[in-house]
Design a protein that fits this description.
Blueprint lengths: L1 H69 L13
Length: 83
Amino acid sequence: MLKEQIEAFMRENSILKRAVAIQHERQKEYEDKNRELQHLKQLLSQYQEQLRALEVNNYALSMHLKQAQQSSSIPGRFHPDVF
C-alpha cells in the first residue's frame, strides 16, 4: 500500500513538473512578446515624430514655393527642373 502511494506521488510529481515547465515556457514567450511590443511602440513613436517633422518641413517648403511664385518677375512661367 505504501508503495502504491509512493508511485501515485511520483506520477503527480511528474505531472506537476511538466505543468511548471509548460507555465515557465508560456511566461518566457509572454515576456518576449511584451518586449517586442514595447520595442514596436517605441518605433511607432519615433516614426510619428518623424512624420510630424516631415509634415512641418513640407508645409514650410510649400509656403516658400508660394512666396517665390508670387514674387517672381515672370508669373506662371517656371523652369520645369526647379518648380
